[in-house]
UniProtKB/TrEMBL annotation:
One of its GO terms (molecular function) is phosphatidylinositol transfer activity. Gene3D superfamilies: 3.30.530.20. PANTHER family: PHOSPHATIDYLINOSITOL TRANSFER PROTEIN, VIBRATOR, ISOFORM B. It holds the Pfam family IP_trans. SUPFAM superfamilies: Bet v1-like. This is Phosphatidylinositol transfer protein N-terminal domain-containing protein. It comes from Dimargaris verticillata. InterPro entries: PI_transfer, PI_transfer_N, START-like_dom_sf. Residues 148-167 are annotated as: Disordered. GO terms for cellular component: cell periphery; cytoplasm. Residues 3-244 form the Phosphatidylinositol transfer protein N-terminal domain.
C-alpha cells in the first residue's frame, strides 16, 4: 500500500509573505547544498500557462553521491545517484514530483500543497483529496517551534528568535493558537517505492526524512524573517536567476 501523509505546518506570517519567504529559503538552501560537482542543478525555471494552470515551473536535479556510503556511490550507476524534481508553483496551490532515473516507474514522491491564510491547521480536506486518499491518509501536525529537529541549530530556533523588522517571535508555548498573522501549509505527500521486500521499510524512511525536511525548512524560514521580509516576487526572481548562475559556476569547480 502506498504511504500517504498530510503534513500541516502553521506559520507566523501571511500567505503572501510565505510565498516570498519560501522561494527565498529554497534559493538559499540550494546555494548551501552545492559545491564540487555536487548538490542542486537548476535546469529550468520559467513561467507556465497550460492545462495545469498558470504559475512558475522548475526542473532541478539533486546530485546525491556524497550523501551516500562510499561503497554504494562507487558501484551504483550515475542515474541511481540523482533525484529529479519537477514543480508547478501555481500559488497558493503547488505540486512537486520527485523521481529517480534508475528506479523509473518504481519510485515516486508527490507533494501537493495548499497554502491557506488566517488558518491554524484545522481544515479537514484543504486539498480536496478523494475519499480513497482520505481513507489511507495520516495527518501529522508540525510545530516549528516545539518539535525538535534531528540536527539542532541555535540560530534556527524559533523559540529564541525575535524579528527586528516585524517584532514577531519568539514562538513559545501554544503560540499557534494566538499568533498573528497566521497561515497553514497543507502538504499531502504520497511516497511510492516498489521493490519486493523493501517497500514498507523505504516508504517509512521517506516519510521520516520528509518530516525532518519540513521541520528544519520552516524553522529556518521563520528565523530568516528579517532577510526576506519586504522582498517582492520580482526580487525573488532576480535572486533565483543569480543563484542559478552561481550554482552552475560552483558545480564545475
Amino acid at each position: 500500500m502506498v504511504a500517504i501523509k498530510e503534513y500541516r505546518i502553521t506559520n507566523n506570517c501571511t500567505v503572501e509573505e510565505y510565498q516570498v519567504a519560501q522561494l527565498y529559503a529554497v534559493a538559499q538552501a540550494s546555494k548551501n547544498e552545492t559545491g564540487g560537482g555536487e548538490g542542486v542543478e537548476v535546469r529550468k525555471n520559467e513561467p507556465y500557462d497550460d492545462d495545469k494552470g498558470k504559475g512558475q515551473y522548475t526542473y532541478k536535479v539533486y546530485h546525491l553521491a556524497s550523501r551516500l556510503p562510499s561503497y554504494i556511490s562507487k558501484i551504483a550507476p550515475a542515474s541511481a545517484l540523482e533525484l529529479h524534481e519537477e514543480a508547478w508553483n501555481g500559488y497558493p496551490y503547488c505540486k512537486t514530483v520527485l523521481t529517480n532515473p534508475f528506479m523509473g516507474k518504481n519510485f515516486k514522491i508527490i507533494y501537493e500543497t495548499q497554502h491557506v491564510g488566517n488558518d491554524r491547521g484545522q481544515l479537514e480536506n484543504a486539498l480536496n483529496a478523494p475519499p480513497e486518499v482520505l481513507k489511507n491518509r495520516k495527518v501529522v501536525h508540525i510545530d516549528v517551534a516545539n518539535d525538535k529537529p534531528d540536527k539542532y541549530k541555535p540560530e534556527e530556533d524559533p523559540t529564541k528568535f525575535k524579528s527586528t523588522k516585524t517584532e514577531r517571535g519568539p514562538l513559545q508555548g501554544e503560540w499557534m493558537k494566538t499568533c498573528e498573522p497566521v497561515m497553514t501549509c497543507y502538504k499531502l505527500v504520497t511516497a511510492e517505492f516498489i521493490w519486493f521486500g523493501m517497500q514498507g521499510l523505504v516508504e517509512t524512511f521517506i516519510h521520516k526524512t520528509v518530516l525532518q525536511l519540513f521541520l528544519s525548512f520552516h524553522r529556518q524560514l521563520f528565523c530568516w524573517t528579517d532577510q526576506w521580509y519586504g522582498m517582492t516576487i520580482q526580487d525573488i526572481r532576480d535572486l533565483e536567476a543569480q543563484t542559478a548562475k552561481e550554482l552552475e559556476e560552483v558545480s564545475h569547480l
